Amino acid sequence: MLYPLTFETIFKDKIWGGQKIKTVLGKDFSPLPNCGETWEVSDVEGNVSMVKEGSLQGESLHDLVVQYKGELVGQHVYEKYGDRFPLLVKFIDANDDLSIQVHPNDELAKKRHSGFGKTEMWYIMQADEGAKLNSGFNREVTKEEYVKAVADNTIQEILNIEPVQPGDVFFLPAGRVHYIGKGLLLAEIQQTSDTTYRIYDFDRVDSTTGKKRELHTELAVDAIDYHHYDQYKTTYDRKLNEGVNAVKCDYFVTNVLNFNQEVEHDYTHIDSFVILICVAGSLTINAEGGYKVALKMGQCALIPASINNVTLVPDGDMTVLETYVP
User: Fold this and answer.
1) Residue 70's pLDDT is what?
2) Phi, psi of 80, deg, nearest 5
3) 147 burial class (0-12, 13-18, 19+ CB within 10 angstroms)?
4) How far is residue 299's CA from residue 25's CA, in Å, rounded to a whole number?
5) Active site residues
6) 188 phi, psi to nearest 5 deg
7) CA-to-CA distance for 50 and 303, rounded, in angstroms?
8) Is 62 annotated as a binding residue?
9) Fewer Cβ in 10 A, N or C end of the chain?
10) Residue 72 CA to chain centroid, in angstroms?
11) Is 178 annotated among the ligand-binding residues?
């Protein structure tokens, strides 16, 4: 029988990573010197999550999808994505600016890489004073202007820069140029894809190789959405003890649950797995069948589609992201 699943964390050493995965989230990433990302729920080839606890301990997420199909992911999800689990959940600690980058959409990714594109969202968990990020352009830009800006090393002059606070949400459809600025700790929900086109890396040199990281400037040109948008930060109502929708797209729906009292959730109608991501505080998940899972900030649980009812019991104030496939 399926039950709420937790997974072993996959740690990623990054040139821009820091110590907040350890100091804020309490995850020991030794022996890595720094940790830029943790992958919490992943079916990316070579980085597949392994079940941490219970009767399925040691099983891979991919094998569970193959075995349980719609019972795990939801019938409509399985019909659409087959044996590949469709979402990837990460925590990211930017101790320095990440590269300016873009992700291809499904059409381009299928053509070039035989995989999925990468639409994603960020939820800001912690921000140092003055922390910023980039989402999109600060004006309408032509492809020719963009190519010239990359060649002239003036790309930063046309980027939209946003100051950020904890609780801010940014939705980044495939094609949107972006980078996470230094001093940010965030949760990321995205399509199952590891395809990134790096446009500019601030002329950094990797201390282990002594070389600059590879850029993908030519690949990026046809992947970019050059339009300017009035609003890049996602607006949502921050309400206490009421689930609020923050993002809804073809790939995932994400609700923000900010609670300090017990709440029951009925998932009968969605025909999808649900991932609960604790981004503040702590709670216990009580699921049908007598299963209990304790989560604290920086932890996730996957609720299989076969489980229709859960009760969330917060330990004081807690904030959870609830995400599933629409």
Assistant:
1) 98
2) -85, -40
3) middle
4) 8
5) 198
6) -125, 130
7) 15
8) no
9) N
10) 20
11) yes
At CA 155, angle to CA 152 and CA 159, rounded to 5?
Answer: 160
Q: What is the mean pLDDT of each run of 10 residues along the chain (326 residues)?
A: 97 96 96 95 97 98 98 98 98 97 95 93 98 98 97 97 98 98 98 95 84 92 97 96 97 98 96 98 96 98 97 97 98
Whether 135 and 231 have beta carbons less than 8 Å apart is answered as: no
**In angstroms, rounded to a whole number, what is the distance separating the alpha carbons of residues 258 and 7?**
24
Q: Which residues contact 23 (CB under 8 A, 6 or more apart)?
A: none
Sign of CA dihedral 226, 227, 230, 234: negative
Structure tokens at 12: 């990623």
Strand order in the sheet with 318-324: 244-248, 253-259, 318-324, 274-280, 299-303
The three-class DSSP label of residue 305 is: coil
* Spatial separation of the C-alpha atoms in residues 302 and 62, rounded to whole Å: 13
| pLDDT single digits (tens) 262-289 | 999 999 999 999 999 999 999 999 999 9
Q: How far is CA 34 from CA 12, 27, 93, 98, in A?
A: 8, 12, 10, 14
Tell whether residue 103 is among the known ligand binding residues: yes
pLDDT, position 230:
95
Given this model, what pLDDT does residue 165 score? 97
Give Dmax over CA atoms of the chain in angstroms. Answer: 61
Quick check: 286 and 276 in contact, CB under 8 A? no
Kindly write down the DSSP assignment for every residue of 220-270, as one continuous string.
HHTT------S--EEP----TTS-EEEEE-SS-EEEEEEESS-EEEE-TTT
Q: What are the residue ranges spanned by the domains of the chain?
A: 10-234, 244-324
At the second CATH level, the architecture of 10-234 is Sandwich (2.60)
Report how far residue 119's alpha carbon sits from residue 189's, in angstroms, rounded to the nearest whole number: 9
Tell me which residue has tokens 């989402």.
135
Compute the distance between CA of residue 247 and CA of residue 234 in angstroms, rounded to an integer. Answer: 8
> Do 104 and 174 meet the contact criterion of CB atoms below 8 Å apart?
yes
H or E, element range at 289: none
Is the overall model pTM greater than 0.90, yes or no? yes
CATH class of the 244-324 domain in this structure: mainly beta
- At residue 207, the pLDDT reads 74
Q: 10-234 and 244-324 share one CATH topology?
A: yes
